[in-house]
Amino acid sequence: MDALGPRFLIRVACCALWALLPLASACSGSKHAMQEGDDEGDVAADAESPTPEPSPKPAADNVDGVDASAEAKIPSTTGSSSSTARPEGPSPRPPASAAVQDVENGVRAATTDPDRALEFFLSASNTDPSFAAAHYNAAVIYEQMGKYDDAERSYRAAIKANPKYFAAIENLANLAVRRGNIGDAEALLLDAIKANPDELGLRNRLTSVWLAGGKSGPAESEAKKILKADERNVGALLNLSTVFAHRGQLELATTVLTRARDIDPDEAQVWSSLGVVYLEQDKKSEALEAFRKATELRDDLPEARNNLGALLVETHDYEGAIAELKRAIQLYPDFAAAWLNLGNAYKGAKQYQEAESAYERARALGPKDPTVLYNLGVLNLDNLLAGVDRLKRFDIARDYLLSYLDSATGLDPEEMKRVRGFIAEAERGKTREEKRIAAEERRKARDLKRKQDEETKKTDQAAPEGADTGSPGDAKGTDPASGGADAASKGGGEGK
Predict the structure, then answer these.
(1) How far apart are CA 116 and CA 98, in angstroms?
(2) Among residues 270, 266, 250, which one has the least CA distance to residue 258?
(3) What confidence tens digit (pLDDT) does each residue in 105-153 have?
């Protein structure tokens, strides 16, 4: 901390990002769906049926006022609280055994070698184009790689192979939200719900999409309808808690989330949402533990890892923060908030070039978020980066901070005072640096003059010594006495 306030701003994701539904796995030649992290033998459901998943991470605004509709989105888990498979239509024919083996191999490789996993899934889909799980898994990997066109194509192939593959429908809808096409996501889900009106998972997903689009009224109504049909539906409870949190009804949101936690204490999304509400209440210790619990329960929640990393930065555990934030970015390469927080972690760890690179990546992904301008300004104010002129750094810092003031909205007077204090600090720093540079130039001039004087003195001292030694140049100017002696010697010889 500094007398003027924090030297960086964090970005916490408040339910604005969603985790991908897990990969589907085929076991023992049958079609099953398995959540990532389960043992291979722990069969959860038929792979050609909807993949059973935990409750959803409800979509919402960032805790610090960033509109969720402007943030990038990633698919979530959603549905009923039950761990059993949801109702399904007629079972498709069993996939080819070679395709089943490829899917199993791909699931095993997915965590450590996504490229290899993708090869297996594509091989399975080529072997048996009707194997929906193969298309779905390829789509999940494509989405994690940021190849959204390929992901959309594979999700649609999975739905074509099995129209009741609800996991593919939900991920496809959230991919549309992630790409800013909320209307497309809504239309897709409404069509699916029309064909499957009793599918609560799809209705929960639609509720999340409405929340992402700022439609809190319809979202609240739908969540309550779902709870009327299933009072233990964790996904609906999560969405309802988000509605309350948006309204500032934090105690009510906490009550709803506590109810969800009591129903399913192993649901990671519940803990992640609790962490966000704790942050709103400035209960940072409780929030940190809630996010940590969420990441322990599920490894693939980018928003929980981002939030945990942001809080670790505040506790000065920079190495721990870097690890969490790198994992969040691995899960979601376009996660602007995680890139910004990673820049903060690198700055705390004194890895300034890495910090600048992370900030610039955050700026490219979220050009409308002024927070990165603040952090880039302070980074240049505090540190001389490679390739930056000593004086220019202060101009760079000042310009970033002025841009932050121009583009940020809703700044309170205290924050504006703090930023203006940093701008004044940049001006003072430039003045000090100019004086320091001038002093260095004067010192260099004095040193140069002293060196020249010493060289001149050495030259002057060396001149008489050269004359005594009788160098060849001096022989031409021998003194008369010496010349007379020589002449006398020569004359005497001649006389003899």
Answers:
(1) 16
(2) 270
(3) 999 999 899 999 999 999 999 999 999 999 999 999 999 898 999 999 9
* Contact (Cβ atoms closer than 8 angstroms) between residue 291 and residue 315: no
Query: Helix H segments across 469-495?
Result: 472-475, 480-495
Residue 496 burial (C-beta neighbours within 10 Å; 0-12, 13-18, 19+): exposed
pLDDT score recorded for residue 80 = 37
Q: Is 332:143 a contact under the CB 8 Å cutoff?
A: no
Domain ranges of the chain: 24-231, 370-459
Name residue, tokens 């699916």. Answer: 192
Check residue 5 and report its DSSP letter.
Answer: B
DSSP state of 68: G
pLDDT at 328: 94
463 C-beta neighbours (distance < 10 Å), count: 8
Q: What is the DSSP letter of 69?
A: G
Backbone angles phi, psi at 190, to 5 degrees: -60, -40
Q: Which two tokens stand for residue 293?
A: 């619990």
In the chain, % of residues over pLDDT 70: 75
**What is the C-alpha separation between 267 and 204, in angstroms, rounded?**
16
Phi, psi at residue 185, to the nearest 5°? -65, -45
Grouping H, G, I as helix, E, B as strand and the rest as coil, residue 2 is strand
- Which residues have CB under 8 Å from 305's CB, separation 6+? 291, 295, 324, 325, 327, 328, 331, 338
Q: State pTM to two decimals.
A: 0.73
Q: What is the CATH number of domain 24-231?
A: 1.25.40.10
The pLDDT score that the predictor gives to residue 47 is: 33
